[in-house]
Design goal:
Chain lengths: 160, 597, 122
């Protein structure tokens, strides 16, 4: 997906990030906590943000890139306004969460890991969120929908 | 301190919170305030009660009245009838707790009766955000006893004698780990807690952290005293926001009370604790990968030896146990190793928590003495399979484990028996499957998981599991060849013996165990191009039963690909080559004449 | 936290707060709180029972409400169920009497005869 990192618009966020880096620098093993904060501030971790972290921490960019791409929670591209997470934990899978994912894919014409053209929805397959009693489960940002059926998907998406 | 005549406990576990238990709490508080009952009735938000299926759950004490599936609208009735007039609202009670006109308290319901709670003893009983409630339940007494009355050696001996084994999967004797770390040279040592619960379908560690975070803090501090460490880290999944929040609150409260920090219980023992978040990598549940991740690197396993006990975090001696293991420690210190050994079996003393899920009536968290049979767990506690379906298999051990069939239902659950049967204890996921689940598909599901989560360091896991997945997909698509089953087996054996870490070595288990118990299903997929369970879509075709078809044409009209032919009032027919298997015809047929076969 | 004694002190205090949630075989006090009971003044009785138990820091006592006990003319009614032995029914209760019941009966174990149904109905 094509997008550009806007230095001007992000100026205040960059300041915020630098402040966080300064605070956490002293921690042993500070990279992961800083990346978490960075993702929190920007919503994703583009190469530009990684460069800033690299310079401030004096850690090679290659190393930071290596870490960012290793963990599935860190994203190099911006996410949609709403992230739909469909649980593909075993309990949900056994109860048919694949059908839920298929329905969403069709409804929004996106693949797992993708974002709709209008940047409204991103679809991810999550591991167990621990609400197995409600299986199958999906989350849209903070909202949790449980005991789902494929038919319910359309109506739920319409709420957003 | 106030004496409340009644306590309303509301489950604040992830499951119940997902179905709005927070709003239910608000509503209780609001109505109780309206009715000016706030000095008589206490509303407490607790951790998980375990029976997630019945959520959101509300328990009212002193009666122990067990309300299930509560909605916000029900709250006013509970306050009005029960709290004000003392009449339990029977229709809102958990169905099993009303029988023969007598109301059973929560502890007498079948789901709880056969359980024995050690690790979960406070979950659903106390407010996890209030340290005094933990202290009231004998909290921190064990720490006090350890640091003021016992030597580190005595602490280690107690844990060793108890026979406690690692609850995270491996089942390694916990006391030995403590001893090795204590004996390792170096004055700087670390105590880690593995809370990176990755098994999709297991959530006991989350529940402990959400419902009783102090038990982990206390145990880690005891461990710190025993092995000579002053710093602890809890490595926890970022996917567990509630657990992270409650653990942080608990750490702060413990610091404030002087239970963490310098001069604990007036001794010169110091211990501090920090939370480190994971970022969505299953492999970080492997201890050396977890250590790499805390150090700020890619979470990739390192070859062992050296073991973390000698060279762990920042190359220093490190003790690492998982959440549930720690949750057993303070009870053992307080009640002694003999007490612990009296529970469970000889080689696997104590209890184990299982996350019961899948095709089972009572989904939730259960803690049982080791040696309980699978049948007791699935039928007595779990309430059996819903919809009168037939039990097919139970999967334990997650992506590293295997499936067990009905002939093993009477086997006792303990570390060694499960391993012997070709599965494993794992972290405690227990997923029940019925006749509608295809075992080839389940094997594919786990392989898909392993492939995605393989860290890529060693080729057997990175390349081997991918090849296995490709073969499974081929079989499921209906393109399997007879040699494929042998290929799967060969690959599996090779990966098992050559992968670097425990995750790679156990990755083929789901395939091997399904091959062992359900080889006929694989063969049906390959040879007859049929899925006996009717789950693999590519292998199914829709058929119209000529006996039942009335020729109403509804199916033909519903078919988006014009695959159905037939005149009005005549028997219809589906052309397989045009059918896209959407199932629209089956839904439309008023006579139930269309079937998948 | 400087000593084990300090912890035990906190525990003693805190334990009252959670006792209600344990299996309890202590004394049960039940107040009739149906419409008739409430209109006869059962609420102040309940409140002073709670207050008194609270003040004295009594453990192993639960106070509960129930519906109509069936003898409306004698409301407010308070029933005391000891862990062993027979239940005692107090009638025509008020706040003062409630306090006395706690002091005499619950703490000292002496039934306050003149408030009991047997005495009043004689």
């Amino acid at each position: 997906m094509a997008f550009e990192f806007d230095w001007k618009k992000n100026a205040s966020k960059i300041e915020e990030l630098k402040k966080v880096i300064n605070e956490k620098k002293k921690l042993e093993g500070s990279l992961m906590p800083i990346l978490h904060e960075g993702q929190e501030i920007f919503g994703y971790l583009p190469i530009e943000v990684q460069k800033i972290i690299s310079e401030e921490l004096n850690v090679p960019l290659a190393e930071i890139y290596g870490v960012v791409t290793f963990y599935s929670q860190f994203s190099l591209i911006p996410k949609g306004q709403y992230t739909i997470g469909v649980c593909l934990g075993t309990a949900c899978y056994v109860k048919g969460s694949q059908e839920i994912i298929d329905e969403i894919k069709e409804e929004l014409s996106i693949e797992v890991g993708g974002t709709t053209k209008d940047r409204k929805f991103s679809l991810v397959a999550t591991r167990c969120i621990g609400a197995c009693g409600l299986a199958p489960v999906m989350t849209i940002n903070e909202d949790v929908y449980g005991r789902l059926k494929a038919e319910d998907v359309k109506d739920i998406l319409r709420k957003y | 301190m106030n004496f409340y005549r009644s306590h309303v406990l509301i489950c604040g576990g992830t499951g119940c919170t997902s179905s709005s238990s927070d709003k239910i709490e608000e509503e209780f508080n609001k109505i109780i305030l309206d009715k000016k009952l706030e000095s008589e009735i206490k509303v407490v938000r607790t951790g998980c009660f375990g029976l997630c299926e019945a959520g959101p759950i509300v328990i009212v004490y002193p009666e122990g009245a067990f309300y299930s599936h509560i909605k916000v609208e029900d709250v006013s009735e509970i306050v009005e009838e029960h709290l004000l007039k003392g009449r339990i609202v029977k229709k809102l009670l958990y169905k099993e707790s009303v029988s023969d006109e007598k109301i059973k308290s929560i502890n007498n319901v079948d789901f709880y009766k056969k359980q024995k709670r050690i690790a979960l003893k406070n979950c659903g009983v106390i407010n996890p955000e209030d340290i005094t409630e933990y202290i009231a339940m004998d909290g921190y007494l064990a720490l006090g006893k350890a640091v003021t009355e016992m030597t580190p050696e005595e602490v280690i001996k107690t844990i060793k004698d108890s026979g406690l084994r690692g609850r995270g999967g491996g089942g390694f004797p916990t006391g030995l780990k403590w001893q090795f770390t204590a004996q390792a040279e170096g004055n700087e040592k670390y105590v880690l807690c593995n809370a990176d619960e990755g098994d999709p379908g297991a959530f006991m560690d989350r529940s402990v952290l959400e419902g009783d975070p102090h038990s982990v803090i206390e145990a880690m501090t005891i461990a710190g005293y025993a092995v000579g460490a002053n710093q602890g880290y809890v490595y926890i999944r970022a996917e567990y926001p509630i657990a992270v929040k409650r653990l942080q609150i608990a750490i702060d409260q413990a610091k404030e009370k002087g239970l963490l920090g310098k001069n604990i219980f007036g001794t010169d023992f110091e211990f501090n604790m920090e939370i480190r978040l994971g970022a969505g990598a299953f492999v970080c549940g492997e201890e050396t990968a977890l250590i790499a991740s805390i150090e700020g690197e890619r979470g990739m396993p390192r070859p062992k030896p050296p073991y973390p006990a000698n060279k762990g975090l920042w190359q220093k001696p490190t003790l690492i146990n998982n959440v549930e293991t720690y949750a057993n420690v303070s009870s053992i210190i307080l009640k002694g190793s003999e007490w612990f050994k009296s529970i469970g079996t000889e080689k696997s003393p104590g209890t184990k928590v299982f996350a019961l899920g899948g095709k089972i009536n009572n989904t939730g968290l259960v803690e049982i003495p080791m040696g309980t049979t699978l049948r007791e767990v699935i039928y007595d506690i779990g309430g059996g399979i819903p919809g009168g379906k037939k039990f097919k298999a139970v999967q334990t051990g997650g992506p590293s484990g295997g499936c067990l069939t009905s002939e093993y239902l009477d086997s006792p659950i303990d570390f060694d028996t499960l391993t012997e049967l070709g599965s494993m204890m794992g972290s405690g996921g227990m997923i029940v499957m019925d006749e509608d689940n295809c075992m080839v598909d389940i094997a594919r599901f786990f392989l898909d998981f392993t492939v995605e989560e393989s860290c890529g360091k060693c080729p057997p896991c990175r390349i081997g599991t991918k090849r296995m997945l490709e073969i499974l997909e081929k079989i499921i698509e209906g393109n399997g060849e007879p040699e494929d089953i042998d290929r799967l087996e060969r690959l599996a054996e090779n990966i098992k013996t050559s992968a670097l870490c425990g995750l790679g070595q156990t990755a083929p288990n789901p395939v091997l165990s399904t091959l062992k118990h359900f080889r006929d299903e694989y063969e049906a997929h390959v040879n007859e191009k049929k899925c006996p369970a009717g789950a693999c879509k590519s292998l199914l075709s829709y058929r119209i039963d000529p006996e039942k078809c009335k020729g109403c044409t509804l199916c033909a009209k519903a078919c988006p690909s014009s695959a159905i032919e037939g005149e009005r009032k005549e028997i219809h027919f589906i052309h397989d080559d045009r059918c896209i298997k959407c199932g629209a015809c089956m839904e439309k047929c008023p006579f139930g004449a269309i079937k998948l076969a | 936290m400087k000593s084990l004694e300090e912890l035990k002190k906190i525990r003693e205090e805190a334990i009252k707060n959670v006792n209600l949630r344990k299996e309890n075989d202590g004394i049960k006090i039940v107040v009739g709180m149906a419409t008739c009971g409430i209109s006869a003044g059962a609420r102040p009785v309940l409140m002073s029972l709670i207050e008194e138990v609270n003040k004295r820091g009594l453990e192993n006592v639960t106070i509960n409400q129930t519906g109509c006990i069936g003898i409306c003319r004698l409301e407010p009614i308070v029933e005391v169920y000891p862990s062993d032995g027979e239940k005692v029914t107090y009638v025509n209760m008020d706040s003062e009497k409630a306090k006395k019941v706690i002091a005499e009966h619950i703490v000292n174990g002496n039934v306050v005869e003149e408030y009991t149904i047997g005495y009043v109905e004689k």
